[in-house]
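Researcher: Good morning. I'm working through a list of sequences from a screen, and I'd like to move beyond sequence-only analysis. For each chain I'm collecting a predicted structure so we can compare shapes side by side. This is the next one on the list. No need for commentary yet; just the structure.
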Amino acid sequence: MSAPETRYALVGDDRVAYQVLGEGPRDLVITTGWWASLDLEWEEPAIARFLRRLASFCRVIRFSPRGSGLSDQRPHDGHDAQQHWSQDLLAVMHAAGSSRAAILGITDGGSMALQFAAAHPGRISALLLLNATARWIVAHDYPAGFPPEGLAGFSSFAQKHFGTERFARTQNPSLAQDERALRWQSKLARAIGSPKTVAENFLSQSQRDVRPALSAIGVPTLVMTRRNCAWAPVAQGRYIAEHVAGARFEELPGTDYLPYWEAPDLILDHVEQFLTGARRGGESDRALAAVLFTDIVDSTRRAAELGDAAWRMLLDRHEEALREQLGLFRGRLVDTAGDGVFAIFERPDRAIECAQALHGAMAGLGLSIRAAIHFGDVELRGDGQVGGMTVHIGARVLALAQGGEVLVSRTVRDILVGSRLRFVERGAYELKGVPGRWEVCAVSGGEGARELS
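Model: Good morning. Structure tokens for this chain:
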């Protein structure tokens, strides 16, 4: 499923951007409040996969409320952000031909969805919330809230660091070591709004208290909160579930504020079960990718020579250099086992160039590595892992490599015929667990490429 067309609904003279995807038997509005940039989000595979899974059993409607993303700015008409959000949603539902829909309110969108469900019961069939809160600030009858000084500190932090990797790392700790994802999240944040917009929205949210609406909600409600999410404590999610009649509460493992990277299938399974009564499980996405494997030559001997402490420090420098090169060549780290690395790339030439750069970087650390690359169809799993026969073949080719070499399968060589890269045939081999015999080549010197020895 490709990215859907972005359309506009009208609220007076203002335009509200929205998208519709899927053709399921029920409508589902998914909202993260003002945290939305409809077009850009499709560039991130994890978000695209999350949306496609929802669209496999629902007709999904998503929008950017005024003041965020592709929509017009909020008017200065005396109404608050919540009133504008409700107007925007009603206009989008009308434009999309939806008379009644379930709402999945994620993070900032949760309090808005709660108030909308209470105010427009005829338009809502079900309510689902993730990492939502009815009130942020502590009160005498609401011990689950944050102290005002804590929110003031967070507001200062957000205004200073919004749109940076530091902010992204705090928001979604599971990606703390994924530089690519952190850079992309920072780019998304900057596309959503300026630091001033962030400050205004934060002030609006911190003053919001939708607890009076909870008793008026009469639709089936599911509340999900991650157990260790600093931005949305479990107690705040549990409070909502305890004050909405018949609501179900699910405490999920994890730390991330947003749902896309940390165990997304667990969230999607709960959503699907709640809306359809069945749980099919996520179907794996597949994509063409180049897989790169490397490992350190004679790592056991070097570790014995250096001792545990010095070897650990060297491995840390190895991993730092690895992540730097992966960032430069647009690779994604899938797994590292200390002296071994598995990464994927969209293009095999980038994987080769990265492997060549890694040889130089590791030589500077006094390390010798070997590398192998294969290209083919891979399985992109919900936990961020990558599987399939392409991965097995890449790992088996690595076993044939010597220190200082970059070996590739013939598949890679054939794809890159006519490129500046040159290859030397190494013969055909039986790869353990892989049918047939596989021709293997070594990357050699040539125009634009250096000799690896």
